[in-house]
Amino acid sequence: MNKPVSSILSAAAAAAPRKDAHIGRMLVEQGKLTPDQVEKVRLLQKQEGLRFGEAAKRLGLVSDADIQQVLSRQFDYPYLQDGNGNYPSTLMAAYQPFSTEVEVLRSIRSQLMLRWFTAGRKKLAIASVNPGDGTSLLAANLAVVFSQLGEQTLLVDANLRAPRQHQIFNLPAERGLADVLAGRSGLDMVAMVESFVDLSLLPAGSPVPNPQELFNRASFGVLNQTLCDRFDIVLYDTPAFLSSADALIVAARAGGVLLVVRKDRTRVADLADFSDQLRRSGVEIVGSVMVSF
């Protein structure tokens, strides 16, 4: 039998104090409030009929950013405050989740979920024409926003020539994808990103003289399937098209590619050539993103 509306409203009202108590406890755990300050907040809350966060801000004890941080934890939407995590500020999805730029990233995520990550698809390569076009940063930020959605997300640094993801996420780089493909390591090289419970990284690993040969091995196909069995989303950061053919091989394994175009830098002729070669390799161009960072 369905519950009457009055019962539902009563339950919601009863839950509000518990939620406020949870917020107060988290602020104490983070060192933002002392137990005595929590009591002052609760007193003002009762006197003025305010939410806990509103009362705490009225007293000048916390900032909007402090409240947003604890609310994000309540709703399993992890992000970091400046100074935490020791990641670069360009990892905007980690530090500025409510900015216009990250809203654009979430829009890209939504389009990819609707247009690509359906019908069992889990893999996507991210590629550009020129080195320095921003592929690695876009891949890193997209990986964060996918993980914030609750998707078990793996970012694979397939740029064996100039890897960056281990630097962005402050993880060891001694072993990784190259070592797995060469048969020297296993999937224990996949590392969880501590600040984001649903995000993992497979770094590029040991420097190798023959990336194309490694990507053409059957072991890469086996690895792809294994990763898709373990994760909901697998993103591949690839080298630039003009520096090697690696991106074509990785994109062909993934089946689809998101192209990164740098404003005022990427030449139309080069992009057309890259797109043509991708299509002839059987790769679906899922979309393109123009970046300026």
UniProtKB/TrEMBL annotation:
Enzyme class: transferase
Keywords: ATP-binding, Kinase, Nucleotide-binding, Transferase
Source superkingdom: Bacteria
One term under GO cellular component: plasma membrane
Enzyme Commission code(s) on record: 2.7.10.2
GO molecular function term, any single one: ATP binding
Pfam families: CBP_BcsQ (PF06564)
NCBIfam families membership: eps_fam (TIGR01007), EpsG (TIGR03029)
PANTHER family, sorted: FERRIC ENTEROBACTIN TRANSPORT PROTEIN FEPE, TYROSINE-PROTEIN KINASE
Protein name: Tyrosine-protein kinase Wzc
Source species: Collimonas arenae
